[in-house]
Amino acid sequence: MRVLITGAAGMIGRKLTTRLAKDGALRGRRIAALDLHDIVAPKTPVAAGISTTIHTGDLAAPGAADALLRTRPDIVFHLAGVVSGEAEANFDLGYRVNLDGTRALFDAIRVAAYNPRVVFTSSIAVFGAPFPPVIPDDFHATPLTSYGTQKLVGEALLADYSRRGFFDGIGIRLPTICVRPGKPNKAASGFFSGIIREPLNGVEAMLPVPRSVVHTHASPRSAVGFLIRAAEIDGATVGPRRNITMPGVGVSVAEQIEALGRVAGVKAVALIREAPDEAVWAIVKNWPTRFEARRARELGFEAETSFDAIIHAHIEDELGE
Amino acid sequence: MRVLITGAAGMIGRKLTTRLAKDGALRGRRIAALDLHDIVAPKTPVAAGISTTIHTGDLAAPGAADALLRTRPDIVFHLAGVVSGEAEANFDLGYRVNLDGTRALFDAIRVAAYNPRVVFTSSIAVFGAPFPPVIPDDFHATPLTSYGTQKLVGEALLADYSRRGFFDGIGIRLPTICVRPGKPNKAASGFFSGIIREPLNGVEAMLPVPRSVVHTHASPRSAVGFLIRAAEIDGATVGPRRNITMPGVGVSVAEQIEALGRVAGVKAVALIREAPDEAVWAIVKNWPTRFEARRARELGFEAETSFDAIIHAHIEDELGE
């Protein structure tokens, strides 16, 4: 089978590519070819027997998506998108990449008329405050960012195109991915990873919000697991509601820090400095805290069950034990 | 002030135009000019002191929406759209008119950069079965038609463009409008009006579904009232959730018929013939029954409080008493 990944150069895209190259199979079939697309060239994975083609460019450009679909990939992972902060700062770029790019890809698949599985990464950014203490699966999507709006539009198109039989789509709403590997970034959510990642490296980390903040996390490894599950699930068991809130570990920052202490000791915890930041707090206080995610669990999507497990996944996957 | 109405040649558009011409004012200001747009030329209302300009064409055509915005209307009523059945039968037309047309209009307002009030008619078609017995205001939108999908996208854009300050938008989700004047049409919902309208005219009407079917209705007069209220409401009281499910009268078909009996007597009721139609039933059985619509009521949107009142409104407005 042939697999297309858009956004293949991003953090999740790279990890998905590595996982597919390692597994060598999906839905019980051997992966013969990988098409990797991004705005910059993704790295080619080393994998015997998998023919990899690298594509670069802007999905929203005329003809670009149609060209990508020429090889009729059996599974399309649509991960491409500009992130929340960028979509908010640059209105035109966000709508072009996240809305027009997604619609162009979906329309190219529609026109190709062969009904592949499409897996779309949506986000809990489709939700907007105020929230109940635990967000149920049937809670309305009222995004408070352009990014969340663009993801919601992608979800709506995915469901309609699936209903019409143009493709067999599954949208997965990812929680915050933690622990993100690599350098600190300027995302408002960056500290959730930073307060774990930096101390594990013996480096100080800043905590800009109160320890009482509750948030839901899943590891990069779980995110890849969600994508694989979304590719493999029987569409008939999903029904017409194709966009599913993923599970995760809902914990307070204090509980994150307690888990760090259990895994890495008091010296690691001592590297966390309180550094209240009103700008970050103004954003974070409007974020959802916990999700029911009952449907996702019933459909076989699995996240970690403790924040300790999230830290262990980071150590195993990034720090080579 | 200047008022633009798209879809001005449609049933609601005509009634809104007539109401505005009669009132001569909106938001406490005199209406100096009306811009009426539709794919076919709307009728010019007779109103002293209001300068009316007729515009025809396809809102999604390049430059069309920008041209409409040149006069900087203070209030934009965006009613234009192809109906549910047409959007389902003709994929390209539905997406072009309902999604691209709406986005073109919203973008033209964004580019004009003067922050007018925009009133957008959405629909309860944004909801898709299964439903709770009463749909709360925070129930998720999972449309089961392309029309509902396109309305949902319009809602999402409206909320984001309002949040960014491009305009001050209010989306109103209309329930089924009943009693629709005029000839029977082929809409699956047509019988809800037909079983009242035809007997009042001494004509037989077919009932294709069981009398136990419960559905929510508002009169055309109420629909116009919703639009006026949406134009006049203080946006600050609405907050970021700009799309509001309108109230209505939730009744069973049996209760509709009882109301007809009270208003027009047993002779009218005797003109209703049971004519079960599996195709209509297959559609109608997935429709929502009742809505909480608490927010709308709190924000001053008023519907009839009985189906008798809906029938009286029809008699007064269409049958000249």
What is the CA-atom radius of gyration of chain A, in angstroms?
Answer: 19 Å
| Unreliable stretches covering 5 or more consecutive residues of chain A | none
Average pLDDT rating of chain A: 96
Strand content of chain A: 15-25%
Topology order of chain A in helix (H) and strand (E) letters: EHEEEEHEHHEEHEEHEEHHEEHHEHEHH
Derived structural class of chain A = alpha/beta
Q: How many helical elements of chain A?
A: 13
CATH class of the largest domain in chain A: Alpha Beta
Organism (chains A, B): Mesorhizobium hungaricum
InterPro entries (chains A, B): DenD (IPR050005), Epimerase_deHydtase (IPR001509), NAD(P)-bd_dom_sf (IPR036291)
Keywords (chains A, B): Carbohydrate metabolism, NADP
Domain NAD-dependent epimerase/dehydratase (chains A, B): 3-202
Written description of the protein model:
Chains A, B: It holds the Pfam family Epimerase. Chains A, B: One of its GO terms (molecular function) is oxidoreductase activity. Chains A, B: This is NAD-dependent epimerase. Chains A, B: Residues 3-202 form the NAD-dependent epimerase/dehydratase domain. Two copies of one chain form a homodimer. With 321 residues, chain A is of the alpha/beta class. In chain A, 41% of the residues lie in helices and 20% in strands. Chain A folds into two domains: 2-174 and 219-245, NAD(P)-binding Rossmann-like Domain (Rossmann fold), CATH 3.40.50; 190-216 and 249-291 and 304-318, Alpha-Beta Complex (UDP-galactose 4-epimerase, domain 1). In chain A, helix 1 (11-23) packs across helix 7 and helix 9 (253-264) crosses helix 13 (307-318). The A-B interface holds A 91, 128, 137-144, 146, 149, 152-153, 156-157, 159-160, 163-164, 240-241 and B 91, 128, 137-144, 146, 149, 152-153, 156-157, 159-160, 163-164, 240-241.
